[in-house]
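Now for our target.
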Amino acid sequence: MADVRAVTQLRRGVLEYCVLALLVDEERYGYDLVVELSAAGLLASEGTIYPLLSRLRKDELVSTIWRESPAGPSRRYYALTDQGRTALADFTRSWSTFKHSVDHILTRKAQK
């Protein structure tokens, strides 16, 4: 049970930045993000992503545009803004240091 809680907390902490990272090279629509994040084990439910995308849009980290779809209704596509790129770059630098610190503590504990 503790493992499930730990993974849930880790997901919550990094999901926003994983979404930003998926938007670095191309705009994508919400369900496309759901599929990729779910396949990577980073998304517990589809209902998690849309409120997050809405918040990212409100915070001006992503922009949106509606596009016609060849298969069905129009889709809202999300693209990374300059502010989003800066936030992702900041997180990427912080993540490396953070990951190293956690790995150091976990490895030290395991050696004793």
